[in-house]
Design goal:
about 475 residues
Length: about 475
């Protein structure tokens, strides 16, 4: 039997201990010296074919139980775990891995389990707790995720840029006359940039030629989108250095993340210019956050209004703590921010019980929902569908659901709560953040089991879910 070199010290030692034999007694039964047995148990020497046959014959064990298959699998799993960027500061060699696997497989298994738990907890903490999420962000993020986290951890409010944009809005006269007129005049008078409309029917929304100083816009843009693109051009020309400094101070790991952040900050400036902070916040309070009226009042889109409401986090002048998300038909959250206690999952789709999904069934309507998360916090949730693109019959259209809401203690400041029974706890739908981190054990809409749980499978009974969930704390 060709077995190659086998280092099975722990198995030999465990076998000796189960027979309650000393090294001298065990060595005598195998017909080898005590020193040789000691070397085998400490993986200093491999076992010989004669020793293997003696083990099989005298202790009635199967030689396959002593093969290296389990060790090879453990070695591969341990190697994979240690390749995580978490261990980037430590480079392990194959010999060290083999020593751990052969001499202390229990420690190897524990390390693999700890690594798996770290990965799961990283997802959970990053999804539900912005403070602890910082500590769990050791694993490498994509440039897009890095920028997303940057805006998340500044509460989606960039003070320097917001203040400059608000001052410029007052100078231009935003809110006093048609935004297009104010923006186009400022762009031409200050920067010598003229606006032209393209004759080409394509997906290009805007194009700026630095040499001719011409900003070309697609003639089929909705007014709100057209004005935003002009405001974006003003942001690039008037606040370029400020944006570069803010993005530079973020200390991104890659050039890609830095450039993506610059795009986000220019967009932020444009939104803050069109919807000046104090003017917008005061109007929102007067109109009791009526989204349609706010959109008409500022000549903005519903998405621009919802997004701006989520950024009202100026120190000393904060608006209502609001959560905001944009969701596609597949349930992917493509935009997210929450100034409320509710935090969106960074991984996986949104809870299927959330009213945001119903928005696709009722285009043009604002759907209301009273909801309660597993932590007992109750919310007023609003959702509506929007359509983007669609410039002509053959153009593609993108459909999204906008989700907006606040904790129930602020609901009286929203016109949408006027006829709802806020004091009736049975009127609140139980929702979660994401199936992976939701602890509700009796949810028939669950897609996957929660991370922090044990599954109980009963083959003799069947509920909507093929398993029962038991918390590991039980």
């Amino acid at each position: 039997m060709a077995v190659g070199k086998l280092y099975i010290g722990k198995k030999v030692r465990d076998l000796r201990l189960t027979t309650h034999a000393t090294q001298a007694q065990f060595a005598e039964r195998l017909g080898i010296s005590i020193s040789y047995l000691n070397q085998i148990e400490n993986n200093q020497r491999p076992v010989s074919a004669a020793v293997l046959l003696s083990l099989a014959g005298k202790f009635k064990i199967d030689l396959s139980d002593l093969s290296g298959g389990e060790g090879d699998r453990l070695l591969s799993a341990l190697s994979e775990a240690l390749s995580d960027p978490l261990f980037a500061a430590y480079t392990v060699n194959l010999q060290e891995l083999k020593l751990v696997v052969h001499n202390a497989p229990g420690i190897a298994h524990a390390l693999i389990a700890a690594h798996q738990g770290f990965r799961h907890n990283s997802e959970q903490l990053a999804s539900i707790d912005d403070t602890l999420g910082r500590a769990s962000s050791i694993a490498e993020n994509t440039p897009y995720e890095e920028v997303r986290d940057f805006f998340h951890f500044v509460d989606n409010y960039v003070h320097e840029i917001d203040m400059v944009a608000e001052e410029l809005a007052q100078e231009i006269g935003i809110g006093e006359q048609d935004a297009y007129t104010s923006l186009s005049k400022y762009l031409e008078n200050t920067f010598g940039v003229r606006i032209s409309r393209s004759n080409e029917d394509d997906d290009l929304m805007r194009s700026f030629d630095k040499d001719t100083r011409i900003l070309t816009l697609n003639p089929y843009l909705p007014p709100a989108t057209r004005d935003f693109q002009i405001a974006l051009q003003i942001a690039q020309l008037s606040a370029g250095q400020l944006v570069d400094r803010v993005a530079g101070n973020a200390a991104f790991r890659t050039k890609e993340a830095y450039e993506i952040c610059r795009i986000g900050l220019h967009n932020y400036f444009a939104g803050a210019l069109l919807l000046p902070y104090r003017q917008f916040m005061e109007t929102a309070r007067q109109l009791r956050h009526d989204l349609d009226l706010l959109a008409v009042r500022f000549g903005a889109s519903l998405e621009q209004v919802c997004h701006r409401l989520s950024t009202l986090q100026r120190p000393g002048q904060k608006g209502i703590p609001i959560f905001f998300a944009r969701i596609d038909r597949a349930g992917n959250i493509t935009k997210r921010h929450s100034a409320a206690k509710l935090q969106f999952a960074r991984f996986g789709a949104a809870c299927p019980l959330w009213n945001a999904h119903q928005a696709f069934e009722a285009p043009g309507r604002i759907i209301r929902q009273l909801a309660q998360t597993p932590d007992g916090v109750r919310y007023l949730c609003l959702a509506t569908q929007i359509t983007k693109g669609g410039r002509g019959f053959h153009s593609s259209r993108q459909h999204y659901a906008l989700a907006l809401g606040c904790q129930i203690s602020y609901a009286d400041q929203f016109v949408y709560a006027d006829d709802l029974d806020l004091g009736n706890r049975t009127a609140f739908d139980p929702i979660g953040i994401s199936c992976r981190i939701c602890e509700r054990t009796h949810c028939a809409s669950r897609a996957v089991p929660p991370i922090k749980s044990q599954l109980v499978v009963d083959h003799n009974s069947r509920s909507p879910l093929p398993y029962k969930i038991r918390s590991i704390t039980e």
